[in-house]
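FW: tagging you since you asked about this chain on Friday. Here's the raw sequence from the shared folder, copied in full. Didn't touch anything.
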Amino acid sequence: MSGSSMSGPSMIGGTFDPLREQLARAARDFGGDAVSGVLTGMVDDVDRALREELEIFPVCHHSPASALAMVRRLREKQPKVIYLELCEDLQPLLTELRNCRLPVAVQAFATDLDGFPKEWAPLSVVAPVTEASAEYQAIAYALETPGVELVLVDRSTDHVFQWAREEERQREHGEEAGLHGDAVGVEIGDLRPRFAELEEHLLHHGKVRHWSEWWDQYVEQPLSGAGYATYRQVMVLIGSLFRRLSRDPARLAVDEDRERHMWTRMREHLAATGADPADCLYVCGAFHAASRVEQFGVRSAAPFEISPRTGTTWLYGLIPSSHSAIEAQFGLASGSVSIAAATWAKAVRRDRLTPFRLTGQKGAGRGPATRKPATPKPAPPQAGESIADELTGFLSVPPALDALDEDELLGWCVDIVRLARRNGYLASTADAIAVFETSILLAGLRGRARPTPYDFQDAAVTCIEKDAVPGRRDVRRLCEILLGGDRVGEVGYDALPPLARNVHDRLAPLGLDLDKRTIQRALLDLRADPALGPCSDLLWMLRYLLPPDAVRPIMGERRLGERAIQESWDLAFGKHQRALIELGYEGVTVEQVLEQRLRRQVWDPKATAAVALAAVEDAVLYLGSRRFADELGARAVELLAGERSVDDAPEVLRRIRRLLAYYRAGEPALPAWCEEFATAGYAHYCTLLPTAFDDDDTGVRQVGAMLGFLFSMESLALALGCDRAQLELAVRQSHPEAPAKVALLWAARTQLGLMTVADLRQRCDDLLGNPLVVPAFPQYIMGFVQAMEPVPALSGFVVEVISKAFGRLPDAVLLPWLPRLITTLKDEAGELMPALVREAGRTFPATLAAVDSFTPPWTSRSTGDRTAGAVAAGGPGAGSAGAAGTGGAGADAPGAGARRAAAGPVPELLFAHRATCDAVAALLGCAGDWQPPGSPASEATDPSGAPGPSGGAGPSGGADPSVTAAATLLTTHPEPALALATLLT
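HL: got it, structure written out here
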């Protein structure tokens, strides 16, 4: 192992000996041996990094000082190989930066995981790039300069998560790693103290509010004009300080493994290419520049085994980024990246530097910089050679601060007042003067000769914002906009994944610029221009896949069996470009991605039959693939048969009804999966019905939906071989105790014919008449309301029950119940209210004048029930039909001698079409002769006085036993005769 990689104080020349002795004396006087070890170790780390044969360039991410030093060093050294601390598998993406507008982020994305926990999906790694960063300057120099090679040496994205998983396994208390489904930011040159007490101490004594402001005041400004040697030594010193004070052993272990990985990769490249380390430059974070691992240095022989990658397939691309996104991702203060960009631009103008830019870079001003003529390169320091000490002078002398730039500060003050007035503030020239003076005052209090943007922000908030914010933006946000704003990057067309380019191409007929970040209105007249139909189909699919604000329909909708003839859309693809790009990681076309997502939904372990039916509906709406819809439908049958819960029964009922209506209207026959779903659902819900009635955790809504499925699918299920006895047996086995479910069970028994409506009405009247049950009667009503779903014929009876409840329930019971009734009807208005309102409209009078004379039909029903036996005495013309002039047989008293056959439209109709009555009489065993209507008839009656089957015209030869049986049948069951008489008259 070489001395350059493991040198100690005794092996180093005397370059930093005076500084080391000075720091050691100060540590002994104030802090003891522990502090002395930290301070002298920092000097050793600087000496070790500077003596390394391969030149190390320490950076801080998004630091203007680092970018300025990088531009100067690249102009001076002109290296042939640049090693960059960035995931090694992201290198092919860097050439695509020329097609983008910065800031953007290079991204690695994976959804199909092999070797990682499935719950981590999707995995994402992003590395943002801004123009005011040393990394971008190095990339632009390498890609634009012939003969220069750029090599990324950091661990791959696959290893990022391999090590994160290993770190998670080693945590004693199972702490979350924070990687599940979130993008991991690659922190290039992250310099922030990991010692909370130190950071708090620095902020307090620096008279600043956050770390970004401290860094700008005490590092950025002093180093922006310093020489390269000074910059390099100071950055390594800061990195060593933060490294030695780190209190996170797990994170430090990961960082050291990264350093071992990077040095191993650099030595492998040097060995493979034969490059001279003197012509190379290693760009890494200042934290890693002070590394103490045994693999440090190109002459080290310490081995390090790099594990193979997993079988996970990684997809790569560029996504737009923004200043605010970078600040949120790396924990920076709001506006700090915008201020850094402004500082960079000012320093470039001040020092008359020409930064490196990629050819064709959007928003890069004049374009690529021309390379200056080569200048003689200074000989790099060799191992063991003494290095000039720049630290002592830098640390012992206060930094030379910039003088007050009154023109710049006046411009800021005038512009912020103008911007504030534009956003609703009552600002004036006096406020501009106050901001100017307050900025100078704050800078003086904080020990600064020149007010920084942070001083200006505080002064503007103090002088302008007062006590209220009149608009959407506060003054601090206005200052950020003034100093550069939240700049948002843009990925060019050529750098987009195939899916995104395909979307742009297919939407070209709309004639819109989809790269704009503003909302654009698209109008589609599909009847006048049928060629826009594919655009409409694509927009509906994107509406399903992208965030709601990206594609928003204003007019037009898409339902099963319906297509709009005109549509209007609000499109914001430019604002949501990242979502569209990440969609391209899932497939080549939108249709492929949609099909994959639907298939993933229905095969998810937590999928239900309702989810599968929703996927079938989406497949029909957006893809139009009968094969794929049948595949999803078959999966829905499997899921329904395996469910042990009925929580989704309402959703299942609603969706299967809609799908059956669609297929019946547009297909010659139902798909096979629909028939299987009907039969499987019939058997499934019949099996679970008794348990659902008795289970307190199962709601009335769910039980009502089960009955709705059984009754609505009954005809189809019976036609396919199901047995109705299974449903009757399930209903008979149900014994609920909750009043709402009891009412629902009564409705089901009525639908099955196990209970008459008259019996149901009598039970409700008994409940209302029982003072002990009256408080619970509203719960019965809620059950009857839910019963309208499975038994729509009961809607009239529900109106009757609710009307009786309003008329007879006391206020103490009625008033607390009303809110629950209203909320129930509101929540289920789309299904229950139409039937209820329609029936109420038929029942109650339509005009106000008719209300006074209105008599509810149920109040007179008892009279009709008492006269129902008249059918047996007078045939079909009895009762109300006889009152209509049908000539009932009861007009003559029984036994009045010669009688006449009944006359009127009913007897005439029956006499003219005698075949039906003859067939019925033959089945009943009632043989007889027909008499013309109105003609004399014999007095053939049975002993009970009941007439014959033709309204008193019995057999010619006295009383017949069959006639007596028919009369008895009609007397016992008068309802069919009454119903028939009503229909005929």
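FW: The mean pLDDT is 80.
HL: agreed, and Residues 249-273 form the longest helix (25 residues).
FW: great, closing this out.
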